[in-house]
Design a protein that fits this description.
The complex is a heterotrimer of chains A (266), B (271) and C (308). Chain A is mostly helical. Chain A contains eleven helices and no strands. Chain A starts with 9 loop residues before the first helix and ends with a helix. In chain B, strands 1-2 form a two-stranded antiparallel sheet. Classes of the chains: A mainly alpha (266), B mainly alpha (271), C alpha/beta (308).
């Protein structure tokens, strides 16, 4: 190692990538602030207040839970997933293809692992901001009866993290033929709608309920509900949510490091 | 022959329109066939998923909603026409904003078209016709799904098809003009942001009587509410005179949108 | 003499206060190959867009094929072929489909367009790539396809904006050969370029444009004859000594230009000038004798290089 340049430690290098992404986001400050604050306001009002006036029967597994309380943790998790998905798809392909900053980074001492780590950290920060704002709006709507409610932020972030395998897939796309639009319409949207988010999973016919069990969004929503008004389910199930979400996230992350490394090494 | 006017006049319709919008439509169909047909195909699922989740899934917790004449109708029959109108709006807005934005700034497609005998009005009409063709295909499919689920409560549902074409035409003609002002992705993001409250609050998922009166007025000023009410009236068969107002709203929107867009295209490409 | 296809008189194009084209006057005769030579930002592309009837002039008069572009845009454009500076091929369509669709923009019948497309693919040496995707073509192929596309309506005038900028030397020569054939067939060509070799190869007559104005007009040979010597001697003394050496070179040849990296001596005979340089005891690091080119004409007229 040359004496003039100090070798930064690996995770410090990953931070350089995060820093780059944060800088690049500045141009979007206006829309990001508006969407981060506006989206929870609009959705919680539309679903939790407007739609709730029509809902006459009890949606929760136990009596006394309002529709607002039921739907809010799921909406928060959905918001985290959407933020993460944007980076897992467009963020990855932007860096590798459209505006190939990852390729540029790779010609400095940064490795593929550090690039992906930095990106994941950035996604974590974005999700944290989004879910925190969501939670504050939930409080304002009176949608959080339990003192443990703040942990719904963690549940939402785990939900977003669990979609990391999508990032590994994105890194293998050579040519944009609208794969993301197709993914959004045929996978993400049904997962969003049929994962016990706006109505309980048990309402689905039994032969469709497996969609929810596989869907990270169902696990994240149910986990969030345990914190917001729970517990309403056995503890082993709550642990299972966490383990499942973490496992998907870690596997996706590692796969993503591999596919990005392979792509950059071409 | 050569004019020697110092201040050149702007030309009439001859300078804007070659009567060949069908060539632009032909190009769009060919491009769809060779590259993005699967995207177009999957677009049909979006409103159907919404209908199944909200109408059937959530609908079982809702005892019913009253229609424009005060009759009780199932919740699914209430939101299905709204989703139909929303999908007409979304398709038209996507086609006239993102799609146009890319062709304008990245593909330089319009630059190539306008180097030929095509004029800006040919391009605008061609692109809008394409959006309408797609809208008609989606709309027909969705109406068939509604029929299968028993959500078309009257024969007048047949008229919902021309109604959604009118809605799509309105949004597309206005959308193109607005897009012509936009230069960055950031600005494009604002379109999404403005569309979201309109989607959520235009009597799509619940009646607007939930709101205090001043908010109702705001909602009633926006185009989507008129679209939703028009289509809902037709599929439920609860016809009212107010539907003529909704119809008029879109006719005016189309006329203004076309004038606006053509002017903008002329300023952008022929100046 | 037949009526000119393009007549521009005191043509001006202003963007707010800035005049991109500041009063230029020229005519182009049918069958002629007419060039606009000038550096980037001279106003060439703006002039081309006005000729192409896609940009409204601020003042002056312009007649293309006897019509005013302000009134008859579509009618004029139906007789033109346009090759823009940057390829704007339709990347969603395949090579042959690009030609077919473009032909339809002119309202031409399908059968006619199809037959013409095959001829043009042949002409552009792209017949074997008919089904290829546009993105898979090389830069030179894309350029040839753009030219083929511009010919689909059998235009009376072909407008070429910087036709070979960005191409490698081999691709340029292939392209020049194609354009030369069009010229032989009598197509009127109007081209802009900032390459003097291109102007010399392709233009019968040209105007030298700088800052929106015409600096000179004539055939390449007559411009060189008029504004430069027969030969040029280029000598280099290294960037440190160029300026001092220039003083010692005074009086050799007709004229002398000091550039940052070399000195140009304009003389009827470059060899004689070089002999004089050595006689004065100066020892350049390198020396080169060449014939005068349009680059030298431009330097004389504007005091600046064409490619900056």
């Amino acid at each position: 190692m040359s004496a003039v340049t100090a070798e930064p430690r690996s995770h410090a290098r990953a931070w350089f990538v995060t820093e780059h992404k944060i800088r690049a986001m500045r141009g979007y400050t206006g829309t990001i602030i508006a969407t981060t604050i506006g989206t929870p306001l609009l959705y919680l009002f539309a679903f939790g207040v407007g739609l709730a006036t029509l809902i006459t029967s009890n949606v929760g597994p136990v009596p006394g839970i309002s529709y607002l309380e039921f739907v809010a943790p799921a909406l928060l998790a959905t918001a985290a997933v959407l933020v993460a998905m944007e980076e897992y798809t467009f963020g990855i392909l932007l860096g590798l293809k459209w505006n190939p900053i990852f390729v540029g980074m790779n010609s400095t001492p940064l490795t593929a692992r550090q690039i992906v780590d930095g990106l994941m950290l950035f996604i974590g920060i974005r999700m944290l901001i989004t879910t925190t704002v969501y939670f504050v709006v939930m409080l304002a709507f009176g949608a959080v009866p339990s003192g443990w409610g703040i942990l719904t932020i963690v549940a939402g972030m785990l939900g977003g993290f669990a979609f990391a395998p999508v990032a590994a897939y994105s890194a293998t796309i050579q040519e944009d033929r609208g794969q993301f639009a197709i993914l959004q319409r045929t996978v993400i949207l049904p997962l969003t709608l049929f994962s016990g988010t706006v109505f309980p999973l048990t309402q689905l016919p039994a032969f469709l309920q497996w969609i929810g069990w596989l869907s990270p969004l169902w696990h994240a929503s149910e986990l969030g509900r345990q914190f917001v008004y729970g517990p309403t389910e056995p503890i082993w199930l709550t642990v299972a949510h966490v383990v499942y979400l973490l496992a998907l996230g870690v596997i996706g992350w590692q796969l993503c490091v591999r596919t990005v490394a392979r792509r950059l090494n071409k | 022959m050569t004019t020697t006017l110092d201040r050149p006049r702007s030309g009439g319709v001859k300078a804007l329109y070659a009567g060949n919008a069908r060539a632009v439509v032909g190009r769009g169909l060919l491009a769809t066939r060779s590259t993005n047909w699967i995207i177009v195909l999957t677009g049909v699922f979006e409103p159907i998923f919404y209908l199944l989740a909200m109408g059937i899934g959530l609908g079982s917790y809702i005892s019913g909603v009253t229609d424009a004449r005060g009759d009780q109708i199932p919740y699914a029959a209430f939101i299905a026409p709204a989703l139909l109108a929303v999908s007409a709006m979304n398709g038209a807005v996507y086609d006239s904003t993102w799609n146009v934005f890319f062709k304008m700034h990245f593909g330089k497609l319009y630059q190539g078209m306008l180097a030929t005998s095509l004029g800006p009005l040919d391009v605008a009409l061609g692109e809008i016709s394409l959006a309408l063709l797609r809208g008609a295909a989606y709309g027909t499919t969705f109406l068939l799904v509604m029929q299968a689920l028993g959500l078309n409560l009257s024969w007048t549902a047949l008229l919902a098809l021309p109604a959604i074409l009118l809605i799509a035409f309105g949004f597309a003609s206005l959308g193109m003009g607005i897009t012509s002002y936009l230069k960055t992705f950031q600005q494009m993001d604002w379109i999404q942001f403005v569309m979201l409250p309109m989607f959520l609050f235009s009597a799509t998922f619940y009646p607007i009587t939930v709101y205090p009166e001043p908010i109702q007025w705001v909602v009633q000023a926006l185009p989507l509410w008129h679209g939703v009410e028009l289509v809902r009236g037709l599929t439920t068969g609860a016809l009212t005179w107010a539907m003529l107002v909704h119809l008029g709203y879109f006719l005016v929107m189309i006329a203004l949108g076309l004038i606006f867009t053509t002017r903008r295209l002329r300023a952008l490409f022929l100046d | 003499m037949p009526a000119p296809v393009i007549v521009a008189t005191d043509l001006v194009k202003k963007y707010k206060d800035f005049a991109a084209v500041d009063g230029i006057t020229f005519e182009v005769a049918p069958g002629e190959s007419f060039g606009l030579l000038g550096p980037n930002g001279a106003g060439k592309s703006t002039t081309m867009r006005m000729i192409g009837a896609v940009s409204t002039r601020s003042s002056g008069s312009l007649s293309i094929l006897g019509l005013d572009p302000n009134e008859h845009g579509p009618a004029i454009r139906s007789q033109l072929g346009v090759v823009p500076q940057q390829d704007n091929l339709d990347t969603e369509l395949r090579v042959r489909d690009n030609l077919l669709v473009y032909g339809r923009y002119f309202g031409l019948p399908r059968a006619q367009v199809a037959a013409r497309a095959d001829e043009l693919l042949e002409f552009a040496q792209l017949s074997d790539r008919a089904k290829a995707k546009v993105d898979d073509l090389s830069g030179g192929m894309k350029r040839r396809l753009t030219i083929a596309r511009a010919l689909i309506n059998e235009p009376r005038v072909l407008l070429l904006d910087e036709p070979t900028t960005g191409l490698d030397p081999q691709a340029r020569h292939i392209l020049w050969d194609r354009l030369y054939r069009l010229r032989e067939q009598g197509t009127t060509l109007v081209l802009t370029t900032h390459y003097m070799d291109e102007a010399e190869q392709l233009a019968d007559r040209l105007i030298v444009v700088d800052k929106g104005r015409i600096m000179a007009e004539g055939s390449p040979a007559s411009l060189i004859r008029e504004h430069s010597s027969r030969e040029v001697l280029e000598v280099r003394f290294g960037s440190e000594r160029n300026a001092t050496a220039a003083a010692d070179l005074a009086g050799i040849g007709d004229r002398l230009e000091v550039l940052p990296d070399r000195i140009l001596l304009y003389a009827h005979s470059g060899e004689e000038a070089l002999a004089e340089v050595t006689r004065r005891g100066l020892e350049p690091i390198t020396s080169l004798v060449r014939r005068s080119s349009l680059e030298d004409v431009f330097l004389k007229l504007t005091g600046r290089s064409l490619i900056e």
